[in-house]
């Protein structure tokens, strides 16, 4: 249940007591300021969020372009791993099983990236389209270039027998495309004619190449629908999975179809003004039961990637228990958020001023993450999607 302004009891002091200020300025989590009010009015649990005035510039740092990985490590588990806990320790990904304990549980995102980037023509005009969110069996929202050369009713030809009509124009170069194919036929056409939707900091001559078809996909990818990879999972190999099982570390899988919004820059200075794109996720009953059982037995829950963590936190109850979940989430986690479930997180190194860097600061502590990133730069770690990774312990680790 969410409160609107008319639902707040007369005379409530929730805004004053929890520092929210103007409620419409703080879309903190799970439906915006209304959820912050709902939680602040729940005397049994107290607020899950402690809103603060934060600027995007608070999360800036210098990163020269030579730190940005253009290809992944080969083999995958030879990438470096920075352990961030009570200190900083350098490892390799292959060392991960030894850093965990029997009974710990790794939570993976099994979404599968689709070849969502297309090149086509509207008459003589070359068009590049990146699908970002599925609306229906034959309909997607997409980022297109040059958007100014398109209008509703235009048709983009991608290949013989494969086209899309511009159903609507949206903001910031976004359009709604209605394809002439749907369902499995559309997916087959994307596999044949599309390319992997690499983020813009990975440079290629033209579209992504054949190596990226394998490199930009996790070992355990299963459910099609993502337009960006859950990149922390790119480091895992069959040998690592076997070593984890041999150590007594458990695994569970959820699905969050990662959208392009994950990598979009924050264009406002006050982070309270930033609007997260929603993404669809699902946690089935078996995964929820496995996570609850691991926690009850004293095991640590290790989210593999920010996508796994965001869905876990979206679905968890205030006491940290989990039930099955299916739906959209636009959770935006910044410092001050009280984590309910995850104890540790594996994640790559993120962009300055990004929502992902804000999230890791919330999880492990802003000053600790600044020190970790400076150490990573000083010792030659590789950054971003194809880069090295980190293993973070929560600042208030149990």
Description of the molecule:
This protein is α/β, with parallel strands linked by helices and 398 residues long. The chain folds into three domains: 5-40, no CATH class; 56-113 and 220-393, QueA-like; 117-194, QueA-like (Thrombin, subunit H), CATH 2.40.10.240. The chain has ten helices and 17 strands. Helix 9 (355-364) crosses helix 10. The longest helix has 13 residues, at 366-378.
Give the structure's gist in a few sentences:
The chain has 398 residues and is of the alpha/beta class. It has helices spanning 14-17, 33-40, 96-99, 183-193, 210-215, 238-247, 285-296, 306-315, 355-364, 366-378, and strands at residues 80-84, 88-92, 105-109, 111-113, 117-122, 125-136, 139-145, 155-159, 162-169, 174-179, 223-226, 250-256, 279-283, 301-304, 325-329, 344-348, 389-393.
- As laid out across the biggest beta sheet, the strand order is 2-1-17-16-14-3-12-13-15
State the separation between the terminal residues, measured CA to CA: 30 Å
**Quick one: CATH superfamily of the largest domain?**
QueA-like
Q: Biggest sheet: strands, sense, closure?
A: 9 strands, mixed
At CATH level 3, the topology of the largest domain is QueA-like
Oligomer: single chain
Reported CATH architecture of the largest domain = 3-Layer(aba) Sandwich
User: What is the N-to-C succession of helices and strands?
Assistant: HHEEHEEEEEEEEHHEHEEHEHEEHHE
Helix content: 10-25%
């Amino acid at each position: 249940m969410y409160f609107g302004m008319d639902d707040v009891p007369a005379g409530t002091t929730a805004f004053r007591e929890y520092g929210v200020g103007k409620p419409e300025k703080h879309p903190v989590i799970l439906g915006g300021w209304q959820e912050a009010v709902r939680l602040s009015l729940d005397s049994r649990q107290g607020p899950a969020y402690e809103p603060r005035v934060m600027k995007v510039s608070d999360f800036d740092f210098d990163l020269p372009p030579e730190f940005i990985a253009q290809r992944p490590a080969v083999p995958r588990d030879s990438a470096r791993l920075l352990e961030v806990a009570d200190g900083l320790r350098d490892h390799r990904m292959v060392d991960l099983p030894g850093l965990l304990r029997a009974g710990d549980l790794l939570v993976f995102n099994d979404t599968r990236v689709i070849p969502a980037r297309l090149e086509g023509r509207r008459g003589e005009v070359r068009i590049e389209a990146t699908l970002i969110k599925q609306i229906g069996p034959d309909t997607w929202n997409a980022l297109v270039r040059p958007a100014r050369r398109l209008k509703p009713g235009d048709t983009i030809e991608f290949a013989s027998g494969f086209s899309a009509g511009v159903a609507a124009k949206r903001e910031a170069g976004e359009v709604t495309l209605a394809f002439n194919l749907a369902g499995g036929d559309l997916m087959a056409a994307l596999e044949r004619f599309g390319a992997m939707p690499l983020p813009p900091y990975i440079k290629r001559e033209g579209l992504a190449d054949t190596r990226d078809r394998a490199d930009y996909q996790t070992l355990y990818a299963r459910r099609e629908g993502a337009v960006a990879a859950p990149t922390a999972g790119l480091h895992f190999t069959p040998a690592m999975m076997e070593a984890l099982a041999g150590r007594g570390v458990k695994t569970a899988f959820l699905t969050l179809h990662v959208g392009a919004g994950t990598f979009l820059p924050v264009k406002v200075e006050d982070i309270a003004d930033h609007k997260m794109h929603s993404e669809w996720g699902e946690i089935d009953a078996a995964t929820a039961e496995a996570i609850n059982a691991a926690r009850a037995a004293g095991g640590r829950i290790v989210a593999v990637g920010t996508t796994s963590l965001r869905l876990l936190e979206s679905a968890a109850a205030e006491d940290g228990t989990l039930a099955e979940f299916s739906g959209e989430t636009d959770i935006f986690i910044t410092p001050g958020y009280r984590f309910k479930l995850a104890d540790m997180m594996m994640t790559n190194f993120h962009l300055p001023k990004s929502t992902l860097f804000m999230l890791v600061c919330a999880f492990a502590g802003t000053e600790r993450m600044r020190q970790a990133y400076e150490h990573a730069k000083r010792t030659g770690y590789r950054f971003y999607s194809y880069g090295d990774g980190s293993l973070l312990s929560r600042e208030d680790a149990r």
